[in-house]
Design brief:
Blueprint: H1 38-42, E1 65-66, E2 69-70, H2 75-86, E3 92-95, H3 99-102, H4 126-132, E4 142-145, H5 151-165, E5 174-176, H6 180-187, H7 194-211, E6 219-221, H8 222-227, H9 232-252, H10 257-260, E7 265-270, H11 274-295, E8 308-312, H12 324-339, E9 343-345, H13 358-373, H14 388-410, H15 414-420, H16 422-440, H17 472-487, H18 490-505, H19 511-519, H20 524-535
Parallel strand pairs: 1-9, 2-3, 3-4, 4-5, 6-7, 7-8, 8-9
Helix pairs in contact: 2-4, 5-19, 9-11, 9-14, 11-12, 11-14, 12-13, 18-19, 18-20
């Protein structure tokens, strides 16, 4: 009797489904790309529909801008950290403001107690912006401001800083985030009701299009919505719906789309599965190009370019075994590079615990520099193009994004969805679903739900350099406010604030009135308060 071959053990193929519900097959081949049209779906780098990236040579001509998120304590402390990182190769700034500043409260406002300088730089007046950018030429570095409801005031302060440095406005390159719809959905630093908030967003965009043409007046920020819990397709869909809403409003003001769209930009996150993120950005670039060309009639190709800051998502990092976050940061940088980022920012490995230490910020900067200069990922344009898997996944992701955009339309459009709270409710539902996936282990996280060490180090004994918040920061800011109010021309401040109130009651662009108040050294709280008197405050809708 012939000997039987050994019985092979049964092979089990594990199931994989991405966050947006896209099932992933073990092997991809030509069948997945039946009907694929090179010109329609892919094109050439730097050409419509920009699937492969918005520049023909991408990183062979210039690698991504490195723009770490920085801001804490007083303006002088933040200025020192700016210079520390710039001396080590960082070529752009991304400014973090404390909560009172983001909410239009002066440091001596009782509601600001304990928060002055805690999670960002405190700014009460033009004086603080002058200190923050002391020794940094207003036309020498691209500066992003993570500020939304107060964006008009901060942008105006920086334009006056440029004036005082003798720098013409047409040489100023700043990016106020100025995406208030996202704030209502995810981040929470809204102040005024939705309609006047949108008016301020458009006032900045209209004013800058005419007087400061290199300012990027709106950076649509899917990042924070993703951090709040939505899926990658929802992040892109909500971002595209919001940029369409802002574009509609600006066109209604009489601007041509090509007058402002080349300066629109995006801030998106990048964490999770690498190929899912790459497909999200490739599909998003293609959809945005079509949106601007087909819906809004853009003629200038620059109006169709999805210019993106891709920031590694801080929610990808963990408090468990925090050094693992250094490794995660390297993979995030790789994913952002393969996604075609124009600008990159990474969270620091200690961010789950504290305001970043200088060591952690330098490590994040070095991670981006090593990725750009040592790995070879920047050596050719869109190196994943033509991959059966990546092209098929890009097509599937486009379909998911379109479905989510259609859902927003059924809510009445993104502005109505924000006013009713329907969009906020959807993000909250998805955040709950994700938390369940994390708790069950369906979504893998090493040292959290996979490979958890039985002798895990207690949190209290981890060797991290914790930021020591100094309550004297608040005292210093209050002291500076007292001196400012004593020494400035009070009558000029009063006239400027009266003009601002009158303007808010009408329909004129408020930026000239804001600039007058800033030049008179009106405080942020005084200017924001003038608008509160006229517009009131937003009341968040309750949705169950």
């Amino acid at each position: 009797m012939a000997e039987q071959p050994p019985k092979r053990s049964e092979t089990r193929i594990r199931d994989v489904t991405y966050l947006d519900g896209i099932p992933i097959r073990p092997v991809y081949g030509p069948a997945e790309l039946a009907g694929f049209d090179h010109a329609r779906d892919l094109g050439e780098p730097g050409q419509y529909p920009f699937t492969r990236g918005i520049h023909p040579h991408m990183y062979r001509a210039r690698v991504w801008t490195m723009r770490q998120y920085i801001g804490f304590g007083t303006p002088r402390e933040t200025n020192a950290r700016f210079k520390y990182l710039m001396a080590r190769g960082q070529d752009a700034l991304n400014v973090a403001f404390d909560l009172p500043t983001q909410l239009g409260l002066d440091s001596d406002d009782p509601r600001a107690e304990g928060e002055v300088g805690r999670v960002g730089m405190a700014v009460d007046s033009l004086l603080d912006m002058e200190e923050a950018f002391d020794g940094i030429p207003a036309d020498g570095v691209s500066i992003s401001f993570t500020i939304n409801s107060m964006a008009a005031f901060i942008q105006a302060m920086f334009l006056v800083v440029a004036e005082k440095q003798g720098v013409a406005w047409d040489r100023v390159v700043t990016t106020p985030q100025n995406d208030i719809l996202k704030e209502f959905v995810a981040r929470g630093t809204w102040v005024y009701p939705v309609d006047p908030s949108l008016r301020l967003v458009c006032d900045i965009a209209e004013f800058c299009a005419r007087h400061a043409p290199k300012v990027n007046p709106i950076s649509v920020c899917g990042y924070h919505i993703r951090e709040a819990g939505c899926t990658p397709a929802q992040e892109m869909a909500y971002g595209l719906a919001m940029v369409a809403a802002y574009t509609d409003l600006l066109i209604r003001r009489g601007l041509a789309v090509d007058d402002f769209a080349p300066r629109l930009s995006f801030n998106f996150t990048c964490w999770g599965r690498l190929f899912e993120e790459v497909a999200k950005f490739r599909a998003g670039r293609r959809l945005y190009a079509r949106l601007m060309k087909e819906r809004f009639g853009a003629k200038n190709p620059r109006s169709m370019m999805f210019r993106s800051l891709i920031g590694g998502g801080g929610s990808a990092f963990t408090v468990q075994e925090p050094e693992n976050n250094i490794v995660r940061g390297a993979y995030l940088a790789l994913a952002a590079a393969l996604s075609g980022a124009q600008t990159m920012a990474l969270p620091t490995y200690d961010e789950a615990y504290t305001i970043p230490s200088p060591k952690a910020q330098l490590l994040a900067l070095r991670t981006m520099q090593i990725c750009a200069e040592e790995t070879g990922v920047a050596d050719t344009v869109d190196p994943l193009a033509g991959s059966y898997f990546v092209e098929a996944l890009t097509n599937e992701m486009e379909g998911k994004i379109r479905e989510e955009m259609a859902t927003v339309d059924r809510m009445g459009g993104v502005i109505e969805a924000v006013k009713s709270g329907a969009l906020q409710a959807e993000v909250a539902r998805q955040a709950y679903r994700f938390e369940q996936q994390l708790l069950s282990g369906e979504y893998p996280k090493v040292a959290v739900n996979r490979h958890v060490a039985p002798d895990a180090e207690p949190e209290a004994s981890r060797s991290l350099e914790l930021y020591a918040f100094d309550p004297r920061v608040g005292e210093a800011q209050v002291g500076k406010l007292v001196r400012l109010r004593r020494e400035r021309d009070g009558a000029a401040v009063g006239r400027a604030l009266a003009r601002l109130r009158d303007g808010a009651r009408g329909t004129e662009n408020l930026m000239p009135a804001i600039l007058e108040a800033v030049r008179a050294y009106a405080t942020l709280g005084e200017m924001a308060g003038a608008l509160r008197e006229v517009w009131g405050e937003h009341k968040e809708p309750l949705v169950f």
